[in-house]
Please model this.
Amino acid sequence: MAGNLRIARNAAYLYVRTIINTVMGFITVDIMLEALGVDDYGLQSVAGAGIGLFSFLVSVLSTSTSRFITFELGRGDMRRTNDTFCSASIIFTGLAVIMAIVSETVGMWVLHHQLNVPEGRMHAAEIIIHASALSSIITIPQGPYSAVLVAREKFNILAYCSLFGTFAKLGILLLVRESDFDHLILYTVLMTVAELSITLFMRAYCIHKFPEARFRFSFDRKLLSPMLRFSGWELFGSVSRTVKGTVYPMVLNIFHGVKLNAAIGIGTAVSGAVTGLAFTVTSAFKPVIVKHFARGRIYDMKESIENATLISMIFYGMFAIPLLVELDFVMKLWLGTVPALSAELCAIQLVVNTVIMAYLVPAESLKSMGLNKGINIMQFIEGTASVGTTYMALVLGMSPIVACAVYEAGLLVNCVFTLVLIYRNLGSLFFNRLVSRTILGVLALEVAIFAILSGISHLLGHSWLTLITVSALSVILFTTGSVFLLPRRQRDLLLSLVRRYLSLTIPSRANV
Model:
């Protein structure tokens, strides 16, 4: 029970963090434009873009490091856990130094010889480059410490630090807006100080709380090979996904111009916000799955995979279906004038993302077991085939809706392949239970709730009242339906948790 409570609590931390950061992201963009102005805003984006070249690699290495630290922690081998941490720290520090050198050399050359910098702003642009170099030295070596927090399931600390960074950025922008000092320089310096503050806090917390996070100069070459092999396949998959996402809008632009790109962008923004909320559940379950695998508790690992799949699909459906039902109203409310095909393309993505929820946890579970080679190869094949078939559909004169549907359909193939790997590695019994009881069960529930909410929306008409009504009903219906989908042991646990919560929040007569 304690483990399930911890997972639920961690998911809640991540969930709240995601919602707040999403909302604050919309708010800070307007304030940032006002505080910096259009020219400085663009200069800050271009001059600081170089840091993104290494963030790709750092993100992959951070994920891999987290997996290996979590695995060794699950085995209970503290010495090897510390060896993994120290080896990763040396690698990350080396990357930080390389990034700083690149920023100060290549970055400065590009700034002075290639970029079109407004007159009188070269000094500010140079400070941004210097800040990027300092930022890389500060933040990149932080990767192993963040990995320790994930392995230790301290998602509350990660959420607090993330929210502090978000609100610090808002406070800095408000201060910059009212300051007489150079706005771009002041913003750059204060943001670097905020990053340093978060880094120092996280390091101090990890060093104080967790013995495996205490650095000593130790580099285990035996650990390097599996870490690099795992990271290599993750990097291959990340590059494949990035190329797919980059080439796809280019193909659409060739045939239908920027208006279709705008429609795709709007649809992706809406559907991505909903999908991001459901991804938080997977993040909360990943350390648990890795630890069960490391300890040889395969039954518990399978149960966690099934529970995580069920909950992530339920969470996604709970928000996606009312949005799908009221999509036209929400789009008009948000944009006023909705670009052509935006709602239709967003609807396709919302439906297809249900498939992502179905195979995301199984795919991440295979990676947790170290079986990431097949997953990433399949993502490359799927991405190449999706872009190729989309191009052929447009060449044959098919409508943009059909072409985009063809592109998104590649995820279905990816889902089937992932489930085949689950079948081969975790057995037919678990595969049948995962597919029949969890995936198909939730899909059937989603279809039923969509039909109910569509009928209610048709009767009431599109309005704020309808949006609130279908959203509330979605939460009620999915919560009720999930109780029946849960196995008896999990259902009894859920009911006992509810009773325990009520006993804590509603005073008994004896205490009144």
Remarks:
- The first helix runs from residue 2 to 47.
